Amino acid sequence: MSDYNTKELVEKDKAHFTHPWTVFDVYNHQGALPIGRAEGCYIYDTDNNRYLDAVGGLWCNNIGTGREEMAEAIAEQVRRMSYSSPFVDLTNVPATLLAEKLASLAPGDLDHVFYSCGGSTAVDTAFRLIHYYQNCRGKHHKKHIISRKSAYHGSTFAAMSIGGKAGDHPPEFDYITDTIHHVSAPKFYGDTSGKTEAEFLDGLIQELEDKITELGGADKVAAFFAEPILGAGGVIVPPQGYHQRTWELCKKYDILYVSDEVVTAFGRLGHWFASQDAFGIQPDIIICAKGLTSGYQPLGATIYSDRIHQVISEEGHGRCFAHGFTYSGHPVACAAALKNIEILERENLAGNVSQLAPYFEKRLKSLLDLPIVGDVRGRGFMWCVEFVANKETCELFPEELDIGKCISNIADTKGLIVRPIVHLNVMSPPLDLTRDEIDFIVDTLRSSIEATVAELGREGYQL
Q1: d(C-alpha 354, C-alpha 344), whole Å
Q2: Helix-strand-coil percent breakdown of the chain, rounded to 5?
Q3: pLDDT tens digits, 254-285
């Protein structure tokens, strides 16, 4: 039996806990599902109902939850030293060892690490680092940032401004709009222009070059931000060659290429980092978090190149990098990251992803025979099912129906957690997932979609 009174917890939560992305009109009445404990791929609510967490927390439980050796590593670091200032001329052992390890895993000359508290602050760090670097070069007008529509880069001020999801830009919030710009998302599914995928790709590249030129070219554009696979924007896998060609454009115009690997790093696509190993590019900056500690501790890292560091650290200018956080390089978080990387290496969890990803893909794509499943897309252990009202035209359901939530609500009752994002169900399970668990995910999702289709039929939808 649970030690908690679920009804009381729900009411206390509603009274005091403001959740990220709260839709007040719904939450004020329905509240939230209290989770009491977790183990491996499974979470348990405070009534002891078990769910397979196919979302992996929030793209982050790469090694699964409840690992005893992680608990011991964290506890041991707390006993030894729970905190040490990272400012100026002080460091700590876990932060130093982790920076060395990240530099060894990151591609090319990405040898320098700046720590923050998560993905959003790592993006904001990159934003400030980019401006600092350009100013140190004497490029004081090189300030414009280009990102993509449907991109998600975090929720701090600069990070949310760099993100391009329309749903994340409600009018009640403010954003940086004078120096941050967005080009089209590289999503071919649903394009109604009649172009081939190759022609669609050519159009994306031309649009990016046109935007660079419009903003002033090499003299004005500082950086391009891109997730290797757009995550919260709908698990959008760009057309083959997209990253290579955008990267080459950036080199042509002296624009820093920032790869946001908050989701795709640490095994999710079968590699430590996806930029080079999966897509063949060498970024100037990689941003990571989430799988860096598998969610056991909050930690983000902005990993940047020797070329950038040589400029900003050049002696004789008296420069100070006036940026940082109380918890930059927090020793407990860094100890957790080191243990997490050790487990990922020892158990070859990236190898498990590479081995099972084709099976996961095959099983998920079997859902395409259902009348409302328009697209199944992803790579590795990062997948999305998109629901449509008309498969031939790719017409979407009315947004207010929230079809993804309708399906995930039924999946909840069957013991499966998937993430609903309006027209989508998104999955990013722990990397030690088994074939049997993949079967449970897909079979449960199928029955949940079928139940939703039946309900839509009763409500008069013609499918």
Answers
A1: 13
A2: 45, 15, 40
A3: 999 999 999 999 999 999 999 999 999 999 99
